[in-house]
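Duplicate of #3305? Posting structure anyway:
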């Protein structure tokens, strides 16, 4: 994450932090994935429907993720102006576990979950965020 994006994210986060809470990692992630076969099928279908005039490819929305020593914050990223648009969720770090890291050609991911909740949050990191991914993975213990 470049300095301008980090500065804008920290400014949005500042009013939400508790006294003594320290930001450990800030990064850009995707919180949903679109598989390659599904993307190819969608593009082919849109090309057929439009008579070959255009092909539409779905893309996940980038999010800003900030991890403090106590919580994880997620904001929707405004790609045009490089600032956080909307605070989407805050997750307490206590008790969180993660799956192993899945390495792919263009990204990597793991699922963060809580023993109290049956749902997990799939977090996808682009290649350039590998250092941030490793810091987050080191802070959240693996499941089982």
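Output from current build:
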């Amino acid at each position: 994450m470049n300095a301008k994006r980090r500065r804008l994210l920290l400014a949005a986060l500042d009013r939400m932090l508790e006294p003594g809470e320290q930001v450990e990692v800030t990064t850009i992630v995707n919180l949903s994935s679109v598989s390659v076969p599904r993307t190819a099928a969608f593009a082919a279908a849109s090309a057929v429907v439009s008579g070959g005039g255009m092909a539409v490819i779905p893309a996940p929305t980038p999010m800003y993720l900030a991890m403090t020593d106590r919580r994880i914050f997620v904001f929707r990223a405004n790609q045009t102006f490089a600032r956080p648009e909307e605070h989407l969720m805050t997750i307490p770090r206590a008790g969180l576990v993660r799956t192993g890291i899945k390495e792919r050609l263009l990204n990597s991911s793991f699922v963060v979950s809580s023993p109290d909740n049956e749902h997990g949050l799939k977090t996808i990191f682009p290649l350039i965020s590998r250092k941030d991914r490793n810091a987050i993975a080191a802070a959240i213990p693996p499941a089982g």
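Confirmed duplicate; merging threads. The chain has a mean pLDDT of 84. Residues 36-49 form the longest helix (14 residues).
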